[in-house]
Design goal:
single chain; 255 residues; alpha/beta; TIM Barrel; eight-stranded parallel β-barrel; 11 helices; 15% strand; binds 3-methyl-2-oxobutanoic acid
Length: 255
């Protein structure tokens, strides 16, 4: 399926079978997730934290994103390969389009950017060039320094109205889906009801969106030093690694 067809079939999932999305940053993980039938492989800039050991996503570079997008794309997945535009690479429509083209050249089939109304011109520039765009609203990790931390959004009627206006601006600009991160459940549900493209939630309540996205290390329990409160680990890969290494150490040192 072409990138455009994959994005179109994602858009058509509005109100239907829930969308499943997981982050992936490397070839083997991408293959395993794709073989399991995940709809979207997000090469998120969470890469900075859960793979590169940075404190947040604000130091992730375009080169780093391209390196990991290429690794995921080499898995040749059925899933849509969605790449994050890293911070400070989409400040103008022209810059956003140039960056999106770099991600596509590396193997991304769609790109994601953070922010609402202020990103409408950037979204228009990218979609006009035939590259599908996913929006990202709510808690915006690239703004963590200005925001002074990670805060739940959409709590007050004013915040909810602003988020809805941002979602509508992104839809008018042509996004095929919107990630809602750390939005209170009632507001996530409201936005999901009001907009014609799928919402994909993370930390935004159960059954409030048209699908869910999770950071793969949160799902697998492979990054034990920080686990967000909304994470629902289905495995404890950190302990599996520790046990395997302990056996290896014992075998080699006791020979
Ligand atoms: O970078 C990322 O992993 C993300 C998800 C949190 C949606 O943007």
């Amino acid at each position: 399926m072409t990138a455009t067809n994959k994005a179109e079939s994602l858009r058509r999932r509005k109100g239907g079978r829930p969308i499943t999305a997981l982050t992936a940053y490397d070839y083997p993980t991408a293959r395993l997730l794709d073989e399991a039938g995940v709809d979207v492989l997000l090469v998120g800039d969470s890469l900075g934290m859960v793979v590169l050991g940075m404190p947040d996503t604000t130091q992730v570079t375009l080169e780093q994103m391209l390196h990991h997008i290429a690794a995921v794309a080499r898995a040749n997945p059925q899933a849509l390969v969605l790449g994050d535009l890293p911070i400070a690479t989409y400040d103008t429509p022209a810059q956003a389009l140039a960056t999106a083209r770099c991600l596509v050249a590396a193997g991304a089939e769609a790109v994601k950017l953070e922010g609402g109304t202020r990103q409408a011109a950037q979204v228009r520039a990218i979609t006009a060039a035939g590259i599908p765009v996913v929006g990202h609203l709510g808690m915006l990790p690239q703004s963590v320094i200005q925001e002074g931390g990670y805060h739940k959004t959409g709590k007050t009627p004013d915040q909810a109205a602003q988020l809805l206006a941002d979602a509508e601006a992104l839809v008018a600009a042509g996004v095929c889906a919107i990630v809602l991160e750390s939005v209170v459940a009632a507001t996530a549900r409201l936005i999901t009801r009001q907009i014609p493209v799928p919402t994909i939630g993370i930390g935004s309540g159960e059954d409030t969106c048209d699908g869910e996205v999770a950071v793969v290390t949160d799902l697998l329990g492979s990054f034990p030093w920080f686990v967000p409160p909304f994470a629902r680990p289905e495995a404890n890969v950190a302990d599996v690694i520790r046990a395997a290494v302990a056996k290896y150490l014992a075998r080699v040192t006791n020979r």
